[in-house]
Each structure stands twice: as structure tokens, then as C-alpha cells.
Amino acid sequence: MDRIKKENKKTEQLKPFVRENKGKKMTTNEGVMISNDENSLTAGDRGPTLLEDFIMKDKMAHFDRERIPERVVHARGYGAHGVFRVYESLEDLTMAHFLQDPNIETPVFVRFSEVAGSKGANETNRDVRGFATKFYTEEGNFDLVGNNIPIFFIQDGIKFPDLIHALKPEPHNEIPQGQTAHDTFWDFIGSNEESAAMMMWIMSDRTLPRSFRMMEGFGVHTFRLVNKEGTSRFVKFHWKPALGVHSLIWDEAQKLGGADPDYHRRDLWGNIEDGFFAEFELGLQVIEEKDEFMFDFDILDATKLWPEEIVPVRKVGKMTLNRNVDNVFAETEQVAVHPGNIVRGIDFTNDPLLQSRIFSYTDTQIYRVGTNFQQIPINSPVCPFHNNQRDGAARYIIDKDRVAYHKNNLADNTPYTVPGTKGGFVTYPSTVEGLKVRETAPSFKDHFSQARLFWNSMTNVERNHIFSAFCFELGKVKSVSVRQRVVNLIGYISTDLAVLVAKDLGVEVPKVEESQIKASSPALSMANTKFYTDSLKTGILIAEQFDSHVVGNLLDQLTAAKLKPVIVSERLGVVNGTDGKELTVDDSFLTGSPLLYDNLFVASGRGASEYFNQKAKSFIIEQYNHFKPLGASRSGMYLMQEVGIINKPGVTINQDQFQPFINNARKQRFWDRS
């Protein structure tokens, strides 16, 4: 027996690659013990991150290589080409060439994405959405790489690998895919108070966008704009959708994941093909350098937004996405966006999250796409580019020159540098001072004021959705202690919300002090958005022997209002009207779904079968339960009567004039049904 024990011990000694971290000291991969894993090394507590931070680089470089070949995050994405024009010259703010002349049309490529899931994830999961824009300017590429939420989970990029490790499927069973409803994610949130405001955003309907075309985009970070006089101002970038900001609801989003897991990309592709181009206005929030410290939040803190009522958004230009890709892999998958890609007139700040991304994105693109990723057509600038970089994997350019170094005499010292006065990029000379430290700036330590500001800004409907989201997400968490920690965190934001969530989850009501912030920001509520009918889908339920006159008028009026009619019937093929008119069926009850239409009109017909009636009623009920507009002609009214929704909010009966139905379609949801 002793011999067997000795052999087992020897076997264990021969397993150097099996380890457990629980209870162990944290070290680098070289074995150096780490004293601080929360902060990057900076010059002063608000200064830039230092290149010598070997601990941050070791951690980030390893993280950047954790997945091949798809992106570690934002793997599920879809893109489109377009153009951007500025409304008027911004020379008072910046030297950037593409922001000077309204006659200049700058090509762009946009990649929308999810953060959490793999390439195979459903597109309607609750998740933050990426919104990355590559501007192909005449002075080089500028990449505005952001999300559909203006803030982020963490303040310092050194913690990004930890966030994503917690967010991703749990490693022991690879569950769940592309979702946050699990223990490790909420353990991270509950253990990191800086995530409190972002927690509120992700539990809101902002993480269930109705369409890529109907969500805001934010640069998240604070950048600089520098004009030709050398004056610098702080700036945040915004994208404001022309169609307003609209979302799905939770039940609808879950079911859509089964009905059409490609819902968002199909929406973008189909509307561009149909000529309903996606339009976004570029907005700027600008703060003068002298006003950097006048706010009750730190403008360099990525977990904070600048309330639009305090720092207004100035709309300066429009982007129109008007062309689909020719090949998704060659363009959407190989595009390499990078917040470090800036042009003259745009510069960085000491935002510690931004500073880490500047390193990480270059590193991960070289690893994922290859050494010469900038030479791939989708990444290549439209302006000429010359330097002494050579060789490497998958090089496209054939350099005929003999000389590949600087300085040189054989080639008259070319390629040559360009002075800043003649267009060369010059970094803004901001002052840097301070001791080398790993610390969080005191001005970064208020974690609950803006979380409360967000809660104060929500309507009752939005608050109910946030409450339900917490109950679902935390209800999936098996650890009672994790649930309790998150509810404690909610308590600092809203006692009322914490009490309700605690009751639903079976944990204790937290005994913590609620934030005393009374202010609200109306811009944060989606109830204050624009409402249009443009490109919304109208499902029209039509049976044999439909009233040709009524349906003809309906189709004409819907088209005039820029609604997109979708003919739905028992089976594919054609359906016949009373005067012999034929309509081509777009969706059958089997291939279509009430989830896919923004509103529903019941035209029915004299030849409606029992099968038609039963399926039509199920479509009507689903639409009604999702608060969507419904209409019916007199021949379809009996189905509305049978399900008991006549005279309910958002339900109209029309015969010739369909404007009431169209007006309801514009409103999109009728929350007063609940």
C-alpha cells in the first residue's frame, strides 16, 4: 500500500501542467508576485499608462491570444459600407481634414456586434452591442470604436481580461453561451462597485436593440480635438440614429432567438437592399480644458457619462450606410478596427481604459489577422502610405526599393518625415507629472451617483423591465452569496428596487444607504426618442377571396407611409382576391412569425379556413402581448372579437382609410395595455 502511495505521489509530481489557483498568491507568468492587479502603472493617479508596465502587458498580451481564430469579444458581428459628410466646417475645434468641408464625402465601414457570444450566438440575446466605424479619410484611417452604451464596466483596462473571463461561458461546462445570467458574471459585478452604473444599463432595454439601425453609438472614452492654433478640447463622440432609439422586449427577444437567430443582420442587409439606408448623425460633446475639473464626476472615467443636459450634444454630420458587403469574411471578419487609429486633429487623453486599448487592439489584430493586417483591402487607407516596415506573414505589398531604413543617403532619406506645420501628426503636448503608482484616482471612486441618475431617468415601464431583468438574471445564479452581494449593490442605487428584487430572489433586504442623487437626465430614457414608420414591417394576414378593393387601398397607403407590407397566408404561392387579383405570399404561417413584424393587419377573406383562423388568432395574441399595433378590416374583425381585443389600446378597425392604423404603427408600442 505504501508503495502504491509513493507511486501516486510520483505521478502527481509528473503533472506540472495541472494546477489549482484557490488559496495561492498571484504572480506573473514569470513567477513575480503581484502587489496590485486593479490598476495599471501610470504617471500620477490621473496620468497616462506607462509602456514599462510589464504586468499589464503580460496580462493583456496573453488575453489577446486566448481565442483563435474569431475575436475574443465582439465575435458575432455584421457590417456595411457607407459615407460620411460633415454639416459645416469644424476648423474651430479640429484640424481633422474630413471634418472641414461639407463637400467632402468620406467613405466609412461600420461593424455592429455583440460582446459576449461566439460567432454562433443568437443575435437577440441580452448583450452590449459594439458600434465600430472606420473612416477612410484623406489623411489616414480614423476608427471610432465604441458601443451602444456610453459607459463601461471598468475604469482600467488591466481588469478587462477579468471582466471577460467572468462574462464568458463558465469553463467547467461551457455554459451559458452569449448570456450574462450565470454565477461568474454576477460574482464579478457584485465584487466590483465600479460596475454599478453599467449594471443598470445592461439590465435596461438598451441591451435588446430593435435593430442596428435603431440604436445609439458612443465612443465611450474621452478624446481630444486639437485645432490648427494648437488649442485642445476634450470630446466624446456620439451616433444618433435617424429612426430613433428602439428596443425589443425580453419575451420577444428570447423567442426571436429561435424564430430568426440572424434577426439583426437580416434586418440591416434587407433594408439596405430595399433602399432603406441606415442613417446616423455624428454628435460631439465638448469640454474646454479649463473646465476639466468643474464637474462632480471625472471626465476621464469610462464608467461615467457626461449628462447631455449639462454638456449638450452638437450634431455635426451624417453617416449613411448604403452598401452591403460583397463577402462577409473578407470585409466584416477581416476588418481590424482600433481606437488607436487617429488622424491629425484628434488625440488621446489619460483615460486608463483607453490607454490599455491602444496597446491591446494592435496586439490582438496582429495575432488574429496577421502581421500585415493593415494591407488587407478592408483595412487599407485610401491615401498613399509609405514606411520602412517590411516582410512578415501574408504581405501584399511588393517593395521594389533597395533601402528600408531611416536615416539613409542612398534614397535621399526617403520616405521622409513631414513637419507638423506641413500636415504631419504631432501629439498634443499635454503636461504629464507624478510618481509612478498603481492607484485609483480619488475622483474615480464615486460609483453610485450615475447609477442613481440612470434609475431616476427611467419611466415606470422602463423601471419594470429593469426589475424583471434583475429577477431573471439573478434567478439563474445558483450561489446565494452572489445574489446577495448584487442585491446589496442595488441597495446603494435604489432601496425600492433592492426590496423588490430581494423578495423575488429570496435574499435579505440590504441595510445600506441609498444614493441621495435627485437629478435625472431625460436623454437617457428611450421614451423620449423619435418615432417613424419608415421601414417598419406590417404583417398582413390574408385568406382566399380577400376584398381586393380594401387590400389594394391598404397596400397603397402603407407604401406611401414607408411601411413594408409582408403578405402572410396559409401557404406560399399566391392568394386570390374577390376580383381575381392575385397577391404573392411572402410568408406562410409556418415560415413567418408574429415576432418578425412590427405591426399586424388582419384582412382575412371569405375563403378563410379553420386552420387560417386558428393560426391568425395565435399571431394576433402574440402581437397584442408584445404591445404592438393591430388593425383589421371589417372582414377580419371577427378574429379580433374572438380573442377579445376590440377597443383595446392600439387596436383599430378600418375599411378604406388606414391613417389611424398607420399612426399607431408609428407609435410602435402601447404600454398601457399592461
TrEMBL record:
It catalyses: 2 H2O2 = O2 + 2 H2O. Pfam families: Catalase, Catalase-rel, Catalase_C. InterPro entries: Catalase (IPR018028), Catalase_AS (IPR024708), Catalase_clade2 (IPR024712), Catalase_clade2_helical (IPR043156), Catalase_core (IPR011614), Catalase_haem_BS (IPR002226), Catalase_immune_responsive (IPR010582), Catalase_large_C (IPR041399). The keyword Nucleus does not apply. It comes from the Bacteria. The keyword Metal-binding applies. Its cofactor is heme. GO terms for molecular function: catalase activity. Its EC number is 1.11.1.6. Keywords: Heme, Hydrogen peroxide, Iron, Metal-binding, Oxidoreductase, Peroxidase. Gene3D superfamilies: 1.20.1370.20, 3.40.50.880, Catalase core domain. It is an enzyme of class 1 (oxidoreductase). Residues 27-414 form the Catalase core domain. Decomposes hydrogen peroxide into water and oxygen; serves to protect cells from the toxic effects of hydrogen peroxide. Belongs to the catalase family. HPII subfamily. This is Catalase. It comes from Cytobacillus purgationiresistens.
